[in-house]
Design brief:
homodimer, Isopropylmalate Dehydrogenase, 2 domains, ten-stranded mixed beta sheet, globular, binds 3-isopropylmalic acid
Chain lengths: 341, 341
């Protein structure tokens, strides 16, 4: 039986995670869940973000189901660096997986696009680049202040995520992989990515490939998102591109993500892309679709392909059946999806 | 009389620049133009990108009118780093100015947006950040390879561009300025930007301010671009955001830019955001609108506010008058705009 650590977190995180859990229980009865109280409330109470003993306990689970972390009462960066990014780094979650689809029942802000026309996955590197936290500040708060940020990239780190992206592209219908970087400006890291990409491509002759600069890719993401199948890119570019991909497929309401350690040496984290939304928290009106789709990614990662597919189909059916403008109750959405399974 | 260096460059660069020059001649008769043959052809012929003597000559001009640089025959990065970025750095062009408007006669890919509804300027820092070229590669082409890129940010560099952006916001109707960064991950550079922004804000009490993470800003750029008035951001984020801004206002056909040294100690460069488009070069069918709008920014920078306004209004009128689907001749567009002045 799968053992899942639940970090429901703050704001609507707790509400949507309850529904994701409900759905996993419906499709995989007997799954064990252990709740962990982490996030803004925990930090404000204890002054700690992620005690080592808790992290050790998390490490003993098969996966982590996360809601959303963050509250205006906590300074920016504290929970992000101390919890979300710490888990990505410590648990070697080097594949940050973000599918974007234009689902039936959802509307793209782009004119004339029909459901089904956008269907892409961004494979974002999760453990390197500008996210490593290297750099420093000198002469703070003086006119002489300087601040640096260092992007660290290894052949090891780039190769493994690029290979993962090729393998995913290989399993999809269109078998197309786009590398996104900024090789004309970031010539050092860009060259490492481009050379590694070319080397790994030789192992996947059936996958067609393409390179785009990040600025051009962001433009195409708006003018022609249909062109993308799988995208592989670095940590920061992936952060940006996946939010645009979410926007053109109708917003973050359906945006799921996984921070994955493919070898399953460490637990992977699955969470909706949206935040804790303090403005609507506590009212039971948050849409749990993205959280439930994240649960579907979790099931897939744990080898339950069939259950994963059934869950995402049930979410799609639920969303497609929504009457335009009808108000939504978080728990009812979860109930309907669970009942359909 | 203004002395302008013309770097028409490659591909459609030469074609659209001829029209921009025609328009400047119409509105400021007597302007002196000196042509410089730089870009891919020059590089392929001489093996040099920007000889020091040429750069010294460029430095003696009031401004540089640039077309587009680049050709598949030149490895990526060579002309970008050796010419475009070199001018930005050597001529201290720290304000990279990119207005985006939804003009009458153009169509946004975003559903339901009407001309006039988007009107923003991105003030992108032009001389710091990840563009400085710092970093290196170790153990190249071995499994132990690492590549680094370093983002360098100074209080000096951030403060001057932030102050420029506040001053621009102050002169506009809505007087709203958005800082875009990624303070929750890039905590060192982000903190420098945020603290500097807050300090300069005190000098501009009439400007309302807002902060957004770059990923959220890119999402809003698609879901609600109307919300933006002036945006100030770092070099790389600005590169990305301005391409999205161009995309949501109908593509790069109307996207003008200036790399500006506000003190006019060095010449500023004005160029369309689009590239050299080798695929359509030589056919006389490239739209010179963005190049002519860049000429308008040039005129404004040199203190010819009235002429600048007349040029951009003439371009707007020309674009608005285009029959849907009609084919376009580069020279005719320039002729019509020049004739209208
Ligand atoms: C919260 C933040 C640290 C995080 C990131 O930048 O990766 C978020 O934007 C995301 O995309 O998961
Ligand atoms: C060509 C390239 C170096 C340049 C940049 O990244 O600044 C371009 O994309 C731009 O936006 O002017």
């Amino acid at each position: 039986m799968a053992r899942i650590a639940v970090v429901a977190g703050d704001g609507i995180g707790t509400e949507v995670t309850a529904e994701a859990r409900k759905v996993i229980e419906a499709v995989l009865p007997g799954t064990e869940f252990d709740d962990y109280d982490l996030g803004a409330r925990f930090y404000n109470r204890t002054g700690e973000v992620l005690p080592q003993v808790i992290e050790d306990e998390l490490a003993a689970h098969d996966a982590i189901l996360l809601g959303a972390i963050g509250d205006p009462s906590v300074p920016p960066g504290v929970l992000e660096r101390g919890l979300l990014l710490k888990l990505r780094f410590d648990f070697d979650q080097y594949v940050n997986l973000r599918p974007s689809k234009l689902w039936p029942g959802t509307t793209s802000p782009l004119a004339g696009l029909k459901p089904g026309e956008i269907d892409m996955v961004v494979v974002r590197e999760g453990t390197e680049g500008l996210y490593v936290g290297a750099g420093g500040v000198l002469h703070k708060d003086t006119p002489a202040e300087i601040a640096t940020e260092e992007s660290l990239n290894t052949r090891h780190g780039v190769e493994r995520v690029v290979r993962d992206a090729f393998a995913r592209a290989q399993r999809r219908e269109r078998r197309h992989l786009t590398l996104v970087h900024k090789t004309n400006v970031l010539t050092k890291a860009g060259s490492l990515w481009a050379r590694t990409f070319a080397a790994v491509a030789a192992e996947f002759p059936e996958v067609t490939t393409e390179y785009q600069h990040v600025d051009a890719a962001c433009m195409f993401m708006v003018s022609n998102p249909q062109r993308y199948d799988v995208i592989v890119t670095d940590n920061l570019f992936g952060d940006i591109i996946t939010d645009i991909a979410a926007a053109v497929t109708g917003g973050i309401g359906m945006a799921a993500s996984g921070s994955v350690n493919p070898e399953r040496k460490y637990p992977s984290t699955f969470e909706p892309v949206h935040g804790s939304a303090p403005d609507i928290a506590g009212q039971g009106i948050a849409d749990p679709a993205a959280a439930i789709l994240s649960a579907s990614l979790l099931l897939e990662h744990l080898g339950h392909q069939d259950e994963a597919r059934r869950v995402s189909e049930a979410v799609a059916a639920e969303v497609a059946s929504r009457a335009a403008g009808a108000s939504l109750r978080t728990a009812e959405v979860g109930d309907r999806v669970a009942a359909a399974l």
